[in-house]
Amino acid sequence: MQIVTPSAIADRAGNKYLGVLVAAKFARFVNDFPRDRSIDLEKKLTTRALEELADGNLTYRLVRRRRQET
Questions:
Q1: In contact, 60 and 20? CB cutoff 8 Å
Q2: Whole-angstrom distance, CA of residue 16 vs CA of residue 19
Q3: How far is CA 39 from the centre of its chain?
């Protein structure tokens, strides 16, 4: 089992908070895919997402939020 440290996430994402947000978004994305329910030894999706981000296998881009016109 790989141990993912906050500094490893910060190296890939800029800071650890952004890294956790990116990993959570990826975990929600992966959760939408159908999985084989007979496999119980699978890692949690959030752990898998953090490992993918720390290994550099996960790419992302930031999209600026548009202001609402009032």
A1: no
A2: 5
A3: 22
Residues 28-44 as b or e (16 or more Cβ within 10 Å = b): eeeeeeeeeeeeeeeee
Give the global pTM: 0.74
Integer Cα distance of 16 and 35 in angstroms: 29
Q: Which residue has the tokens 């978004």?
A: 25
In this predicted model, what pLDDT tens digit does every residue of 15-56 receive, in sequence order? 999 999 999 999 999 888 876 665 555 788 888 899 999 999
End-to-end C-alpha distance for the chain, whole angstroms: 51
